[in-house]
Amino acid sequence: MKMKLFILILCTLIQGCSKLDDYMLGKDNTPKPKELKQVKDKIKVDQNWSVAAGKASKNKEYLRLKPVVSRGVIYSADASGLVQAINKHNGEIKWSTAINHGLVSGPAVAGGYIAVGTNNASLVVLNQNNGKKLWQKKVTGEILSPPTILGKKVIVKTIDGRVYAFNTADGKQVWMAEHGSPSLILKASSSPVAMGNMILIGFSDGKLDAFDQQTGRVMWQRSIAYASGPSDVERLVDIDADPIVENNVVYLASYQGYIGALSLVDGQFIWKKPGSVYKNMILIGNNLYVTDSHDVVWSIDKRNGQVNWKQTSLKARGLTEPALIKKDLVVGDKTGYLHFIDAQTGEIIARSKVSGGISISPSVTGRKLYVLTDNGMLNQLSVS
């Protein structure tokens, strides 16, 4: 398992595994990013405060550790195992809890609880108000995607294709379902998404399953992408972006597969187009915004799959998934730049830099951005 994950990390890092053999032989074939063109800022970006929210990351893994903003508090989790509650206005730390193991996903915050996944295949749940650990449960594999808290249940998907439901209050297992997993997968994963009495979950074999929330029974299953190609790497079709559900339509994407809209009425695709995505998408109005695995940012019409625009000047910069701040998009990159993009035209309208690489998408409330950098600093920026 360790060797499998190591290879997958390399695949993600080099943004294209066709030259994996060269990389293993010591040749750095990472694509070189284009030199950034100077941008005349059309919006003003100010950096307000910065606070230590963990230790510097020692590796280049893609981890789902995006901070959550709730009721004036930012909840952050870092790879070293530190979970913190921070005042969103001034950066003051309200409480801090150290987990005994490193973290790979979370935090999920809801109903007075915080849930995180550890690198020793455990689910940890804390009290939202004071950070006290309430319970910890061992599962069969790492929880690479943030847990989903649904009332009295917390739902998690493990790297080996199992889905668990635990009682949120005491950690008792309610049910477990087994989907399975291919021998080679990306070290990334999509989270369970609630829809009515169902939970939608994408898996690493390109399938989307709908589970009954109460029992864990599989209600239906759809194949979204099909593995093809002579090598295991070419056959990767993981669904790693969270499905987005709106009006009986689910929007989803897979790695080396498709971006598409699936009708939940008849189970048929409304549209789909080739694409390779492993980071979350966002849906705003009629537009689906996507950062693909080659660091191209897309705007796609959700109704028919037509491409509105694509921004290609940021290739190989290690972009985050997009976030929306007012009417504009923002993506971070591995060198510490934030790139602001006009959501209507795809034009880059401003750029700002923080002191550390950005692997996690900014969290946004109003005109404020909260950016957790690879060196463990949480930054607040404002846009005007």
Automatic annotation (TrEMBL):
Does the record bear Magnesium in its keywords? no
Where located?
A: Cell outer membrane
PROSITE patterns to which the protein is assigned, alphabetical: PROKAR_LIPOPROTEIN (PS51257)
Biological process according to GO: Gram-negative-bacterium-type cell outer membrane assembly; protein insertion into membrane
Its membrane topology, per UniProt? Lipid-anchor
Q: Which domain of life is it from?
A: Bacteria
This protein's GO cellular component annotations are: cell outer membrane
- Please give the Pfam families that the UniProt record associates with this protein: PQQ_2
Q: Which SUPFAM superfamilies match?
A: Quinoprotein alcohol dehydrogenase-like
Q: Where is the Pyrrolo-quinoline quinone repeat domain?
A: 80-311
Keywords carried by this UniProt record: Cell outer membrane, Lipoprotein, Membrane, Palmitate, Signal
**Family membership:** Belongs to the BamB family.
Q: How does the record describe its quaternary structure?
A: Part of the Bam complex.
- Its job: Part of the outer membrane protein assembly complex, which is involved in assembly and insertion of beta-barrel proteins into the outer membrane.
Question: What is the recorded name of this protein?
Answer: Outer membrane protein assembly factor BamB
* Gene designation per UniProt: yfgL
